[in-house]
Amino acid sequence: MALLDDVRKIAGVAERLKGPVGNEANTKALLIEPTLSALGWDTTNLDHVLRDWPMHENSSIDYALRIGDDNVMFIEARGVTESLDDAQFTARAVDGANGEGVLWCAVTNGLIYRVYRTDELVPTDQKLAFEVDLSRAAVGSPADTANVPLLSRESLGDGSLALWGEQKVFTDPRVREVLAELAATPSAAFLDAINDAIGDHKVPRERLRASLGRVLVIETPPGTKAPTPRAPEPPARPRDTPVAPEATGTFTKPETATAVRPDDGPRTVEAPPPPRVEAPRAVEAPPRVDTPPAVEAPPLLDTPHVAQTPPSVETRHAPEIISDAPDTTDAPEISDAPDAPPAADPAQAAPPAADPAQAAETPDTPASPETAAKRRFLGVSRGSRDSGTQSDTAPVDPYAPLARPDGPFDEVDF
Fold this sequence. Notes:
It is built from 13 helices and 8 strands. It is of the alpha+beta class. Among the domains are: about 1-160, Alpha-Beta Complex (tt1808, chain A); about 170-215, no CATH class. The strands form 2 sheets. The protein has a 6-stranded mixed sheet, with helices on both faces. The protein has a two-stranded antiparallel ribbon with strand order 7-8. A hairpin with a 3-residue loop joins β4 and β5 (about 110-115). α1 packs antiparallel against α2 (about 25-40).
């Protein structure tokens, strides 16, 4: 209570230091040194407080607080009306203290004290351990009231300030953050290291993860943000693939099963999805093959006439080989004659018309196409057949014996 009473008195004096009287000299004499005395530092004892302590590069620090032969804290002062937000001012004091091997350094304007740990390997603003505002402490601010005793000679002498800094600001919060990350999503290497330390009685990884969540109860210090555990990734779900109408299989959502563990209670585990049944593919009909158009038979060609016998050669009449009766049967095939082409459509392959004169004289039934072709080949007309004579211009019958002066040759089979 005595310390808080002194703080209230100092805060009341600060209200009078307005304008020009709020310079650095009056601030030191009326605000800073009375505060140090209230905290247990005898400003008249050279073993406690030294003013304008020399540092490197021809500079000095306003106050050096000592315990025995060691400097335990440096204090750099400004006027009560000046701001402490000057980064260069703060960095020069903190770096100078670190160069002198002093662990703690404070900058103040007589009312506000900002305390830094100089050996932290971070930027200057992150070396800040705490801040005390005497004007807020005078009106009962809990945080400021609790931090005022950290500046006492006793706190620096027994290591309370150093321990508080480790627990609240520097080492422990960093370790706590890392452990929170490991507890939320422990890596396989971390779990294996724990199992190796456990020894023979190994613990399954799932049980280790659950145990870490129970054992590592993380307390978040005021003003800091607790790490957010990373949620485990949800299991992959099958894509909603539309099923073809002709498919026989159906798609159903996977059901959830409950796996009961003796150590950490029931846990919902998603059952694996059933295999997807694909619809059978429709068999395509083979392409239609159009029937090629029918090839028309070539027109019937007339058989070439046999060359006529010269008029000087006497020829004999060929024996009559065609009966007077109308032909009802086809003549025997002649092996030497060229093969007749296939018969064409009767409407297209009609026999050639006979001589109009002969057609008028013989009203008999017309001969078949085959008989007419044979007649043209033998050179026998219908009239000559009826008269029994052969015209001089008719071709020689190839089946008749050839005439010789001394008699006919024997008939030769072709």
